[in-house]
Every structure is written in structure tokens, then in C-alpha cells.
Write a sequence for this structure.
């Protein structure tokens, strides 16, 4: 069994209104030292190991998990199951 | 300047309908080896360093970024700015 951690983030050039809203809220809560906030997705997958696991994960990311027009993705493969 | 990576995940005991829907979609795409999917948030913060930065980040997570009734959070502090 493999555990895969996928990080999906907006491309630098893409505006992040959600991040902006969170930044404004943090400023209203007096955390004035916050300069920037970017919101992304963190997806944990548990899957049976296969010979082409890297190819598979790239396909899953590019076909379903990430919108590659506006998002970047990266992933890490670990042994074992989710905690 | 410090860069903080915050990972927000649903508590184990909490049902993850979004994760279930993604799992079903992956199975429909013939990725039958996927056993479980959990969807969380990945938040990147850029903030000016302060003496009590750990306390500050915990407060931000517990007051705004995470719903601690159903979510866990963890974070990593790094030097420098977001790529």
C-alpha cells in the first residue's frame, strides 16, 4: 500500500480571491504582519502499489485532481497508510 | 520574511464526501487500485517574522483557517518567500 500526498496550488500568475479574503480577515484580526496568503488543495491518496505508479498519479492529477490551466501540482509517495 | 505552510485535514472520524466522490471518479476512470482519498486545504502564508510567530500561527489556525471541531491542522515554518 502506498500513501500519496498531492499539493495543488494556483499558478503564480492567477489571482487568488480566496487568499485575498483570508489575508484581509487576518489583518482585521490585527495580524498586520501577514503579507500574502495562497490557498490550495492537499489531497491524500491511499492506493495499491503498481509498477507505473508515477505515471498513474500524473494522469490522475492531470485528468481529475488539478485544473492544469490555472493550477500546478506536485506529489510525494510514501510507504504505508494514512494516519 | 517567513513562509508558513499550513495543512488542514479532516479528523479521522469525520466523513469525507468530497474524498468519496473523487474516489468514485477515479474508479470510473479505471484506477481501481485507489483505496481511499482525503481532501484537505494547503495554505501558504508569507509574513514578517515576530518573536511569537508560533503562537500567532496557532491562533490564526484556531480562529480562522481551520474548523477545529472537524479539522486538524499542522504547519511548517520556512525562511524566505513563496515560489
Amino acid at each position: 500500500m502506498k500513501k500519496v500526498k498531492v499539493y495543488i496550488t494556483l499558478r503564480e500568475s492567477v489571482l487568488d480571491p480566496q487568499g485575498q479574503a483570508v489575508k484581509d480577515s487576518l489583518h482585521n484580526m490585527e495580524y498586520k504582519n501577514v503579507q500574502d496568503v495562497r490557498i490550495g488543495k492537499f489531497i491524500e491518496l491511499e492506493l495499491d502499489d503498481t509498477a507505473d505508479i508515477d505515471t498513474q498519479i500524473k494522469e490522475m492529477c492531470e485528468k481529475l485532481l488539478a485544473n492544469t490551466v490555472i493550477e500546478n501540482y506536485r506529489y510525494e509517495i510514501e510507504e504505508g497508510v494514512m494516519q
Q: What stands out?
A: The mean pLDDT of chain A is 95.
